[in-house]
Amino acid sequence: MTIPFYQIDAFTTVPFGGNPAAVCVLPGPVHASWMQRVAAEMNLSETAFLHPMDGAWSLRWFTPVTEVDLCGHATLACAHALWQSGLLAPGTRARFHTRSGQLTADREGDLILMDFPAIAQHPSSAPAPVLRALGVTPTYVGHFAHTLLLEVADADTVARLEPDFPALAAVPDCEVCVTARATRAGHDFVSRYFAPGVGIDEDPVTGSAHCALGPYWARKLGKHVLVGYQASARGGTVKVTDRGERVTLAGGAVTVVEGTLRTPPSSSGQ
């Protein structure tokens, strides 16, 4: 048995930008340990696994070391793969059953629009080892899920960050999103995202973080439609619409690799 496989750059309109995700289209459920081994082999920030389920698609996401509850760029990549491969007609909504509930994606020109849950952040404090590892003094500290949200003085500070990744990885259950108001035309805020504890030193473009960044900057800037730029080496743009309990994340996608996996799952299961 061979399994269709795609590598897709998400939140970009040009190859080798944005965030690469692997997408594996399966005939049915497989064991999580096999998916984790595939994700480790791919060694991308996320590998996504799809199979048909109840008229929609089951979707799970794995980093090289663990399964995660929510991933934006790999969901965008999955929708792109389904439309491109003909598994979904171009005008058909993509529906996904996930650990974060049902997610959907639609096409609008060159953009893919995803309906995601908004994520609330709350004021918090940053452990001193995190601030030392980043070398920053934040103007605001918040917290959402396993992520610290640090606002800093300006976009240049975000761009210049050179974290001490071993020190950051030593802080338990800590991922860090650093953000500032944008200065470049056409963007409202910038960010970078670091998660060495789950095998990702720096995530190139983090869709799920924009579920929190969008509402955060919407309140600060007094607008509901915003454009975020994630200032990693690859860079990527996420358009966010704050809709209260939900957000719309929008971005482009480009397929850079298409092929087959030749190592089939050893067994089915959870």
List the defining traits of the structure above.
270 residues, alpha+beta, Diaminopimelate Epimerase, Chain A, domain 1, 18-stranded mixed β-sheet, 6 helices
What report would you give on this structure?
The chain has 270 residues and is of the alpha+beta class. It has two domains: 3-105 and 252-261, Diaminopimelate Epimerase, Chain A, domain 1 (Roll); 122-244, Diaminopimelate Epimerase, Chain A, domain 1 (Roll). The chain is built from six helices and 18 strands. The protein has an 18-stranded mixed sheet that branches. A hairpin with an 8-residue loop joins strand 1 and strand 2 (19-25). The longest helix is centred in the N-terminal third of the chain and has 14 residues, at 72-85.
Outline:
The protein has helices spanning 32-42, 72-85, 128-134, 155-160, 165-169, 210-221, and strands at 3-10, 19-25, 46-53, 56-62, 67-68, 94-98, 101-108, 111-117, 122-123, 140-144, 147-151, 175-181, 189-195, 200-203, 225-230, 236-243, 246-251, 253-261. The protein is α+β, with helices and mostly antiparallel strands and 270 residues long.
Spell out the blueprint of helices and strands.
Elements: E1 3-10, E2 19-25, H1 32-42, E3 46-53, E4 56-62, E5 67-68, H2 72-85, E6 94-98, E7 101-108, E8 111-117, E9 122-123, H3 128-134, E10 140-144, E11 147-151, H4 155-160, H5 165-169, E12 175-181, E13 189-195, E14 200-203, H6 210-221, E15 225-230, E16 236-243, E17 246-251, E18 253-261
